[in-house]
Amino acid sequence: MDSNPVVEMMGRPLRLAVIGGGPGSFIGGMHRAAAAMDGRYEIVAGVVSSDPDRSRKAAVDMGIEAERAYSDAMEMLDAESARSDGADVVAIMTPNDSHHAYAAAALDRGFDVICDKPMTNTLDEALDLVRRVQSSGLIFCLTHNYTGYPMVRQARAMVKSGELGEIRLVQVDYVQGNKADEQDPDPSDGLPWRFDPARGGPSLVMGDIGTHAHNLMRFITDLEVAEAAADIGHVAPGRIVDDFGGALLRFENGARGSFWVTQAAAGVENSLWIRVSGTRGSVEWRQEFPTQLIFRPLEGPVRIYTPNGPGILPAAARASRIVAGHPEGFQEAFANVYSDAAEAIAARRSDGQANPMAMTFPTEIDGAIGVKFVDAVVESSAANGVWTNAELLTEEGT
Ligand SMILES: NC(=O)c1ccc[n+]([C@@H]2O[C@H](COP(=O)([O-])OP(=O)(O)OC[C@H]3O[C@@H](n4cnc5c(N)ncnc54)[C@H](O)[C@@H]3O)[C@@H](O)[C@H]2O)c1
Questions:
Q1: What order do you get walking across the sheet with 140-142 strand by strand?
Q2: Can you list the positions of beta strands (E) in 30-149?
Q3: Whose alpha carbon is nearest atom 36 of ligand 1?
Q4: Nearest CA to ligand 1 atom 23
Q5: What is the pLDDT of residue 2?
Q6: pLDDT tens-digit series, residues 69-104
Q7: Domains of the chain as residue ranges with CATH
Q8: Which of 199, 226, 257, 346 lies 20 to 30 angstroms, CA to CA, from 246?
Q9: What spacing in Å lies between the alpha carbon of 28 and ligand 1's midpoint?
Q10: The whole model's pTM is what?
């Protein structure tokens, strides 16, 4: 990522406006650092809190000019679309229930959009965004940031090149412990938005990490989940939102899979793990040790690939930033997604040409497929685990 194709195509970095990610948000800082890492964006405007005074102050503290530190998202979108030097791109990192309204308003005003997951809380909203993106020709990037890891891209490239043979089995786990304490949050303090299904969506665990795990399987294998048989709910007594979800999966090519996500495993940090097995071998990747991709060929010794290490394929080399053996991780992967989206946006805005390898960032289609998967596992679990369609059907508008 050492050249800057955005500046080559546009003569300047993209102008970015942010919605959300203010004080107290972990992911807001990740978005801003990802945007800055390769010099492809300049953050020019923001509304970073639902509280107008806090928003303006926090935005100025982030280095945004006072006149572009707004108190309300719709006010910012109107003002920025009226400026000759207005933002090109809007990044949305607010609670889940606001993604649709802000993304729709941004697209309607001609902004390209970067949005955090889950894309929306309902399938109708997701399909509405798909239609708006496709009719406008604008770019929509969904920040499934795990797709930016060099070794995830190596796994995908190995599947694509046929090195694993025909894919037969997929297993994914995303296990966290941050909601293991049933006393936290204390309802007498008022529940945070995540614990309110009207704001957090139909399933807390699926919205927080389930859509990431589902997207990771699809990204590496290029296969869709056709059906799921699921059991999801809560293990913490008294909780009204889901803290675990498990499903057996049938993929479109007949491959079988297992999916397990929870936030209630005491002491576990961010244990995202995936194994993909084909007729000629298996790959395994663990996010807590992200610089290793283990390849177990059917014949021959185990191989371990590393970023910028020997034998990696061009898609992984392109996403590798530093000398092999120096660790790179979450932040760099997030920046890879931002930088690829920037290349696509700049190409669209300048009639330029993006590197085809940049065009793998998750889009509105991936977002809608993720929302459909959430609905499918919720529906299956409510029917005591009956096999349930998880594919977006043409009659649903795609
Ligand atoms: N990609 C990832 O790995 C990842 C990780 C964490 C969260 N997320 C997603 O990011 C989003 C936010 O999650 P979070 O954990 O940061 O939540 P949070 O509650 O910690 O922070 C939300 C931030 O948005 C601000 N905000 C709320 N409403 C706003 C509005 N109307 N206008 C402007 N700012 C507003 C809040 O003041 C706060 O600063 C969610 O959609 C979540 O799913 C993604």
A1: 41-47, 14-20, 89-93, 112-115, 140-142
A2: 41-47, 89-93, 112-115, 140-142
A3: 49
A4: 21
A5: 57
A6: 999 999 999 999 999 999 999 999 999 999 999 999
A7: 5-145+359-363 (3.40.50.720), 149-324+367-381 (3.30.360.10)
A8: 199
A9: 7
A10: 0.97
